[in-house]
Amino acid sequence: MNRIRTLVWLIAMGWLALSPPSLTSGEPFLPQQDKQVLEHLTVKATDPVAREIRALRASLLRDPQSMDVAVALATMLIEQSRSEGDPRFLGQAQAVLAPWLNHPTPPSSTLLLRAMIRQHAHEFDLALADLDAVLNMQPANAQAWLTRASIYQVQGRYGEARRACQPLLRLAGRHVALTCLADIASLSGQATTSREMLTASLEHAGISVRERLWILTVLAEMAARTGDASAAEKHFLDARSLGHKNYYLLGAYADFLLDQGRPQEVITLLQHETRADGLLLRLTLAEQALHLPASKNHTAELAARFAAGRERGTRVHVREEARFTLGLLHDSQTALTLAQTNWAIQKEPWDARLLLESALAVGSWNAARPVIDWLHTNHVEDMRLQQLVAQFPEEQS
Amino acid sequence: MRLILTIALLLLTTPAWAHKPSDSLLSLTVQQDRIDVRWDIALRDLDDAIGLDANGDGAITWGEVRSRHDEIAAYALSRLTITSGETHCPAQAPRQLIDNHTDGAYAVLLFTMTCPSTIETLQADYRLLFDLDAQHKGLLRLTHEGDTTTAIFSQESPTRQFTISETSMWNQVQQYAHEGIWHIWMGYDHVLFLLALLLPAVLRRVAGRWEPTPDFLSAFWEVLAIVTAFTIAHSITLGMATVGLIALPSRLVESAIAASVVFAGISNLYPALAQRRRVIAFFFGLIHGFGFASVLSDLGLPRGSLALSLVSFNLGVEVGQLAIVAMFLPLAYGLRNSWTYQRLVLVSGSLGIAALACAWLIERMLDLKLIPL
After folding, report:
1. Which of A202, A111, A98 is nearest to A148 (CA)?
2. Where are the beta strands (DSSP E) in A31-70?
3. Tens digits of per-residue pLDDT, A93-114?
4. Residues of B with Cβ-Cβ distance to A150 under 8 angstroms
């Protein structure tokens, strides 16, 4: 009897050990100890930023009519959302501005902030409508021009993006306008000149650390697109050495390393970055490349996060989901559908790449057609995209 | 300041956020005049709304949450209004637990709302967090008699109305009868118990040996008597357990059912016992009734039409049982003269049934001992 019991116990334990960890909501539980930590906040109450946000909130509470305080608070919250990678702050910024945004004619400073919030939510058309209204009221608003340029660039509307950069030559620093223009030019047929121009602007005396980071990241991505791996590597390392933590830079560098076949370095780079979905995705791709067992759990975790995101009814991370579905779930048909949905929203090189890769995996020339046409029309210079296009049968002939 | 903001914004496509935006998950299960609610709200959101991190160390502990249970309940409940028809359905004080979702820990509020009468239209007015976070959403899951509807509350659409359609009486009869049939077919233990008792029904004992029954009618009456005894017995306990007169632990019932199958199988090898099959059918039928009752209670019983569901379910069980008998009897009657039936089917069949049931018995009994794990 005892032996049977031991055997059954062993089987039960084995089953428990083998069953996958539950990642979505399981059974709710009653924690056993008061000191058990349930949640870590992204910002401690004692952080200087948190203190400043609290002070602004308090003064807005004292004087709810003060638009200047509300705009300052919303600006800080948007900034916070970017540095913490947390979209909650965007919703909070929008709530702070609500009394003015509910007006029939909202003031331009609040509209500008709403445009940025909408830009982050990938509601590009709504954001552009807000920017139109701002620029109608304030044609010299440099921020509005720059935001408009970057939205057009993401949408692949390069002509309009260029036109939005031009006013910056007189409204903002020359290097701002140059970077704005060069980034677009490098995508649309003038990669070499753009790189020279931008490299020169790094010598500009008055540029801040953030601006340097931005320019170096743009340069690194340009170099990677033209196939100049050693220059790309150097720019990425220079940008990293500035010591500013930046999610975009981490993601772009990880992509570069993955393309270079250096997954081990991606793991070193991202092993502690499991909170941001986009970075966890790259980490998991690296783990898969090295056949590490961790890739299984991380794939399940990502699947649960995408499912939770879908429940909300908003689709912000379609690009990441397409890449996840193609690269980790190996479901090319679903990946193709996602990549097509994503292509309707945004048209950056990665969006084109995902659509081409999944179309290749499915073997569908027709699905790739719109992207290939688009690449030709815009003279997009990207070595990897051209290699992909060459794999389609009719392109070879 | 302006320029810094400008520059940072060009790095536009943040690689997917570290978190998703704020959601709460609201699950309403409607039954007659009451709504069972489970509401999951992120601790981070509650911290923004009413402050949970008392010592400001950036970590929210269970102690900090527990000491604010009253405030959490008051905050949440003041932002959810459910009305049935025109009248408000008040909520009980919630029980509070914790659950981990993909983006962090959530407070789980469990409570019941009671409306004045059976709910026909349900109006939900959801205002949680919209004043603090314009992108917050409430993800609603409304369940009624197994049908689930989902909806999303947002600042732009904070109210929703639902019609709770009553399933018709005939639908209900069908549904429960279907479950009854299904259960007797899929619950192999009931089928095997009955078969073990029926195997000797086409034979009779003459001078210490099994002999085929001379005519169909006497086999038929024998089968009818056993099946009726089983039916009467399990109907009694099914009814008593369903209305709550007797409650037995389900492990005990399940083990006893397995034991009854072992006993029925073995009894065929002992002619003295085999003669008392009607008594066995009745006595163990009482135990099988408890097994049926636990299935019925898992289905969820509408309070208003308990009797109807009970009778429909029971009818389903009998129909399922009759179908099995109708297949068994002609087959067994046709084979009863052969040596195969008398030796192989009766003896080996009974032994096989007993052996299988033995395995069930061990499984179910050990499961009982595994509970502390």
Report:
1. A111
2. 37-40
3. 999 999 999 888 899 999 999 9
4. 9-10, 12
